[in-house]
Design brief:
With 410 residues, the chain is of the alpha/beta class. It has helices at 47-62, 70-79, 88-109, 113-116, 139-142, 146-158, 182-199, 215-225, 242-251, 264-274, 284-287, 289-302, 315-327, 340-345, 371-375, and strands at 3-11, 23-30, 35-40, 125-130, 163-166, 204-208, 232-234, 256-258, 279-280, 306-307, 334-336, 352-353, 356-357. The strands form two sheets. Strands 4, 5, 6, 7, 8, 9, 10, 11, 12 and 13 form a ten-stranded mixed beta sheet that branches. It has a three-stranded antiparallel beta sheet with strand order 1-2-3. Helix 9 links the parallel strand 7 (232-234) and strand 8 (256-258). The termini are far apart.
Length: 410
């Protein structure tokens, strides 16, 4: 069995676009006619340029190769061009193609991917959701309203979720770590208080920051949140200085989580050695794919750390997360995004049921991609999957993080 053909589809979820402005899906076909699907997570370049990168990686390293040779394929790509170090763009291309190989192998063996990763460890997977506006909420007001966030949190707990994530802490800025405004610290503590009062002990609070703060600022913010006992303090400092994140972990009594912007065992290993985080959040469409993150899970197990696969993408990456999560002993939970478009794109093959996901028993990733639907929603914008703002922290008028990258309304 050999890998012979590649198609790349860039699809844009309809407004409000939860999961990013676009998703890059790859369709790989073998000489035996088996098709596998993967997803390349947000890259540092636009989708048109990324499509060329994906094609180059496929033609240079995957074409004509046996999809069973996952380890060999990883080493070829990781070492290409005399690198042998993490490269987010190339690893993003590799990750989507690698996920497609696992889909092919599962279909070839007529077994779900988790069965090829050591078998089923977890019969159901605890899921968490980000807090998005309810239909009656004013979106422009939601992101700075503790009351609306608490209302959404209570609604998600009624659906069965036992953990909810939110991030009211300030601007999503390209300027690197900054000291939070006192108003941002107050807003964050108020969000935690309101949500904790709304859900009680029925759900964990997951506090996100997207690497916005410098070390001292992250410590100040984290200590202000301690009375509400969040389960994690996500990416409190930028991911480019692991020792600084370790300083935060030593000074805040909330477990630190990180990994959304990291790639390969090299970066995750450094996090574990430094004691910078106890919860790892790989995005499988960027971090190196399923097999590389299976290795990271084993490394984390040796450090008594847990895995919580990240998702701000489409349902193909989510399916990959589910199979990894089903196979590892140190799973904490998985992120989910419930929209009609996510569901329809995989024809409802996998769902969240009362706050948990049941790993599929069907071959491969266990999904059927609606290719016509994906092609009917092409991305025509110019922005990246996620877009960081130029403006710095506003210490006079307050800040608002607008919940990722919602697509513009028609």
């Amino acid at each position: 069995m050999r890998l012979m053909d590649l198609d790349v589809i860039v699809t844009a979820p309809p407004a409000p676009g939860w999961g990013g402005r676009y998703w890059i899906l790859v369709k790989v076909t073998t000489d035996t006619g088996i098709t596998g699907w993967g997803e390349c997570y947000a890259s540092t370049i636009g989708p048109e340029a990324m499509t060329h990168v994906i094609r180059d990686v496929f033609e240079r390293h995957f074409f004509g190769e046996n999809p069973e040779n996952i380890e060999r394929l990883f080493r070829k790509v990781y070492s290409s061009g005399f690198t042998q170090r993490p490269d987010l763009t190339v690893m993003g291309a590799f990750s989507g193609l690698e996920i497609a190989c696992w889909d092919i192998l599962g279909k070839h063996c007529e077994r779900p991917v988790w069965a090829l990763l050591g078998g089923l460890m977890n019969e159901k997977l605890r899921a968490y959701t980000y807090l998005y506006p309810l239909p009656h909420h004013a979106m422009s007001e939601f992101w700075t309203s503790p009351e609306m966030a608490a209302e959404t949190a209570a609604a998600m707990v009624e659906k069965g979720y036992t953990a909810v994530k939110f991030d009211p802490a300030g601007p999503y800025t390209m300027r690197g770590g900054h000291m939070p405004a006192m108003s941002d610290i107050t807003m964050s503590a108020t969000f935690c208080k309101a949500i904790r009062e709304a859900v009680g002990d029925r759900a964990d609070l997951l506090f996100g920051t997207h690497g916005q703060f410098n070390t001292a600022g992250a410590i100040r913010l984290g200590q202000a949140l301690e009375p509400y006992s969040p389960l994690w303090f996500e990416e409190p400092t930028p991911p480019d200085n692991i020792e600084d994140m370790a300083r935060v972990a030593r000074n805040v009594r909330i477990p630190v989580a990180t990994g959304e912007r990291m790639a390969t065992k090299a970066e995750f290993g450094a996090v574990l050695r430094a004691g910078a985080a106890e919860i790892l959040q790989p995005a499988l469409g960027r971090a190196g794919g399923i097999w590389e993150m299976k290795k990271v899970a084993a490394m984390a197990e040796a450090f008594n750390a847990q895995m919580a696969p990240h998702l701000y993408a489409g349902p193909v990456e989510w399916a990959a997360n589910i199979h990894l999560a089903a196979s590892i002993p140190n799973l904490l939970m998985i992120e989910t995004i419930e929209t009609d478009f996510h569901n329809d794109l995989i024809k409802g093959a996998i769902r969240v049921d009362n706050g948990f996901v049941i790993p599929p028993e069907t071959p491969g990733l266990g999904i059927e991609v609606d290719e016509d639907l994906a092609r009917a929603h092409p991305y025509t914008g110019k922005d990246l999957h996620l877009q960081m703002q130029d403006a710095p922290c506003d210490y006079a008028n307050g800040n608002s993080f607008q919940g990722g990258a919602p697509a513009p309304a028609d």
